[in-house]
Model the fold of this input.
Amino acid sequence: METALTLTLPAELSQLPAFIAAVTKTAESSGLAPETIFNIELALEEALVNVINYAYEGKNGDIQVVCRTGGGSFVVEITDTGAAFDMTALPPPDLDADIADRKIGGLGIHFIKVLAHPATYRREQEKNILSMTFCASEPCGQST
Done:
């Protein structure tokens, strides 16, 4: 896969528009369909907000976003050095439960899991690495 973008910024909500704009521009340059770009933006925003709000527990830190293209895929990889958290291990929310009985939270993670094919997590050298793959064309996910 070819690296199309590497961007590292402080883990601050004020940086969210810069992250999204850079990834959107990269996705557009890669020729992705508007629907796919929308899915990328939604999943990216959910993932970044979780990292910003929870990974660093009020401490300063950075987030790196890398976009890779190839083999019919567009991959967005988010790396941080915050607290370990494997969102892919969480069970799906109970979407059939009465609204009053539902747990608060978890829908953003659910969106990521539904939109990215697949979303994977690994912890390497004290870093969280969330990888989200989106189909740029068919067949998706084959290496070139």
The mean pLDDT is 88. The radius of gyration is 15 Å. Residues 34-55 form the longest helix (22 residues). The helical segments are 16-29, 34-55, 107-115.
